[in-house]
Amino acid sequence: MLTSKERAELRSQANTLDTTLMVGKGGVTEAVIAEAETQLEARELVKGKVLEGAMMTPREVSDEICAATGADGVAVIGTKFVIYRFSEKLQEER
Length: 94
What we know:
The protein is 46% helix and 21% strand. The chain is α+β, with helices and mostly antiparallel strands. The chain has a four-stranded mixed beta sheet, sandwiched between helices.
């Protein structure tokens, strides 16, 4: 669980990130979850977007991906969301 200060710091870091995870009309599928896992392991902080055809709100998408991957939701603004999960592999590389 993130504190409000940690969440604020992650939000500021996410401002410069490109949107790399897209959720379309299929919703949160196994492929989306697998891609989120891959990106969280490689980057820790991932920005995603819910496309117009999706039948879910960005908050629902963020919550579902977080539940499936063990990540923390950082922010949901408009159609975009940001998730975070600590990565041991990335920490070792630093």
